[in-house]
Specification:
Length: about 140
Amino acid sequence: MKKLYDTNMTLYINTTEAKHMIVALKQGRALIAEKKVKAMRQEAEKLLPAVKALLKAEKIDLKQLKKIEVESRGGSFTSLRIGVVTANALAYALGVPVAGSQKPEVRSKKLTAVEPIYDREPEITKKKMRLLRRPGTGSSQ
């Protein structure tokens, strides 16, 4: 049976959870469909295929999307960036507005983009303690 929806669909993206991400379709405030995907540290590889699978399952064309919503606060630095960047890129490519769960949004005359809000400094700049092993002994120095 073919699913019938009007053309006013919103794609929702949440990559802030530790072990999974969520993509969903909404019509107004009503949740139409939701897909949870295990993606611990694999958001970049799994986000767009999850969106494609959700749209295909619900027989929704990209042209029916009129807005993108994204969680823009929380989670790890990298997973948050992946979700926000993907939402901004999809919105730009489709010519639709994008909105974050938290403000701020960056606006110009022709473009709106969501800016991620980080709860803490990224750990990518912190030096990591390394255990040095003596050659041939297998023990730490």
